[in-house]
Design a protein that fits this description.
With 386 residues, this protein is an alpha/beta fold. It is built from 14 helices and ten strands. It has a single domain, classed as TIM Barrel, CATH 3.20.20.70. Helices cover 41% and strands 16% of the residues. It has an eight-stranded mixed β-sheet. The protein has a two-stranded antiparallel ribbon with strand order 8-10. The two termini are 39 Å apart. GO terms for molecular function: catalytic activity; iron-sulfur cluster binding.
Length: 386
């Protein structure tokens, strides 16, 4: 069998991704905002603080709508009334203590004006400014990250606020990013965006995934390690590693349901962090790594997460939580001598296993399975009623 051309394969995967996304239940119109808090260690030198992370409802991520994200599901919904959503966010923001760390996020990008109208964004930023946060973080994509928008953010926030911008790099390999994550962003855009953020005094964070669609454990590990080092060399000040979960309404979630993808293990994340955590230390001895989404709750959206067994999981979560506050290799010492189960050794076997095929072949299998399932479903709907 001859594999399809990369362009044809990607088109098939994007079509499948869009179709899977259409089955997501929309967020109800009465859920406009929610907040979660957690401890973070930020800045250089690092200081520990409480993070207030705000999510607010939008129509959904523009790029997700176009099928350009195989793994995220931060919600979709009907077109919003900006006035109603903004008021809901403002009420919650008013309860945040002065001088806190704040993170403000829609379902996709704060700087995407198709998702967050400029007037609404300015209004929310003014309310954020009233809290005089020590740090303010948001996420965006290079396609919508312009100097004018960044200057506006800086203009609206207090001069002493540390401004942090997270960019969805996912992989430093353009082909893996394009085929496995379905993000066609050109490589130069990441370099240009990192430079622009630094020139305007923002701290750029590269969001890098572990466990992309189609990647074997060995490929995923090597890709993430290369991504950390590539983004670091490009000038991103922090490399944020996200081990992926199987989420409903995503192509990764669909593939997981059919035995075609598995989340990375927590041991894989530990091995990765231990290998590169001390590669780039500042004058205070702090590393430039951070981690997120390593301990999500399994629910209607997160169907399968990075994990260990019942014996090792509590120790892994404790060690990873400690690493988040102090990103050094020795923060993982608690799991260095673990011998309570064979999860670590099984992960090591996966990372060193010989492979007969690569991620492209696995993506072909996923696309073929989608086409087969779709054809079967279509045949069922056209059967005559007897």
């Amino acid at each position: 069998m001859v594999n399809p051309a990369p362009r044809d394969l990607r088109r098939a995967l994007v079509r499948a991704n869009i179709a899977v996304r259409e089955n997501r239940p929309p967020y109800p119109e009465y859920v406009n905002v929610f907040v979660r808090t957690y401890q973070v260690s930020v800045g250089r030198p690092r200081t520990e603080s409480q993070m207030y992370q705000f999510w607010f409802r939008t129509r959904g991520c523009t790029y997700d709508r176009a099928g350009q994200c195989s793994m995220c599901n931060y919600g979709i919904g009907p077109e919003i009334r900006p006035e109603v959503v903004a008021r809901a966010v403002e009420r919650k923001l008013a309860t945040v203590p002065q001088g806190s760390s704040l993170y403000l996020s829609p379902s996709g990008s704060l700087l995407d004006e198709k998702e967050v109208p400029p007037d609404m964004r300015d209004r929310l930023l003014r309310k954020v400014a009233e809290r005089r946060p020590t740090s303010f973080a948001f996420e965006t994509r290079p396609e919508v990250c312009t100097r004018e928008k960044l200057e506006r953010v800086r203009e609206l926030l207090p001069s002493g606020t540390r401004l942090v911008c997270q960019i969805g790099v996912e992989s430093w390999d353009p082909e893996i990013r394009n085929m496995c994550h379905l993000k066609p962003t050109r490589q130069e855009a990441y370099l240009e965006t990192a430079g622009m953020l630094r020139s305007l005094g923002f701290d750029p964070i590269a969001n890098i995934t572990l466990g992309g669609l189609g990647l074997s454990p060995r490929e995923a590990y090597q890709d993430t390690l290369a991504g950390v080092r590539g983004a670091r060399a490009a000038g991103f000040g922090t490399q944020m590693v996200f081990p992926l979960s199987a989420k409903a309404g995503t192509l990764i979630g669909w593939a997981h349901d059919r035995g075609l993808w598995e989340p990375p293990t927590l041991w894989m994340l530990v091995r990765l962090l231990a290998e590169c955590a001390d590669d780039s230390l500042d004058t205070h001895g702090h590393g430039d790594l951070d981690i997120s989404w390593f301990n999500p709750q399994v629910d209607d959206v997160v169907q399968s997460r990075p994990d260990g067994c019942e014996r090792c999981r509590p120790t892994l979560i404790a060690a990873l939580s400690a690493f988040r506050l102090r990103p050094r290799r020795d923060s993982l010492d608690a799991v260095g001598s673990w011998d309570g189960c064979d999860c670590a050794s099984r992960t090591d076997e996966l990372l060193h296993a010989a492979e007969e095929r690569g991620y492209y072949d696995r993506l072909v299998v996923i696309a073929d399975r989608w086409a087969s399932d779709a054809a079967e479903a279509g045949a069922r709907t056209t059967l005559p009623v007897l």
